[in-house]
Amino acid sequence: MPYSQEDQQWIKSQLQAEHIGQEILIYDAVESTNDTAKRMVGESDNEGTVILANSQTQGKGRLGRSWHSEGNVGVYLSILLKTSLPPEQISKIALVAGVALVQAINEFSQPRAYLKWPNDVLLNGKKVAGILTEYCKKKEHSEVILGIGINVNHAHFPISLQHIATSMAMENGEIFERLPLISSLLNHLDREYQSFLNEGLSPTVDQWNLNSDMFGKHISLTKGTQTFFGTAMKLDAEEGNLVVLTDNGEELAFDSGEVTLME
Ligand code: BTN
Q1: Residue where a domain terminates, one of 210, 227, 250
Q2: Are residues 174 and 224 both part of a single domain?
Q3: How far does the centroid of ligand 1 lie from the alpha carbon of residue 149, in Å?
Q4: Does 1 have pLDDT greater than 90?
């Protein structure tokens, strides 16, 4: 079912959040909620405005990929965060969001979801949710757009995605209501984001490490034109970088890259 305008009130009534979700705007179809949010930068005094769409015609993924955004079955939302964080801290917001996202999914899903660096959420080894953060500066206003997509009730995916994508419904054998999942996500996000602003990255990194099952596994990590092979060790507490013990015994920390879990 598409969202109704009353859904906005229902979500708000469930929020304990101090900042995120003071304003929630619901659309039936947009090209991309991140692009809708981008057009709103500098327009509102509210912090944490949420743009929620029932479907996207040009949903965007990381690294220029597209995000499959079928109507009625997924959660597609973007949050506008006004931030005075220094540039090197802004990229950490995706780690904060990853922790909130996996916590929210695990309130509902029976098989447990896990984080895969940098910010994918996997259910039974396939991708169930993803995060795309973008930074937008317009005159004196700079805001971070935090885009989140969750495959909730998809019954199938296009052939090209079938080996990598899944939905909460496919792995649980049941259909989930989207609204409780959304309100849980916004509550977790508010809490994690406030903790990051007040206490720094370390508590987020602890939670990240607890909610990932990639450590101790053999991985390949591609960064630019280079590919590294080794064992994923942990995220380091200071920067949230991925520490890898390479196959030739070197310990390296990565701030970005694409990870493949080896069999
Ligand atoms: C990824 O894992 O590649 C990131 C996927 C992010 C998808 C969400 S859906 C809502 C928001 N709007 C977009 O166009 N993309 C993000």
Answers
A1: 210
A2: no
A3: 5
A4: no
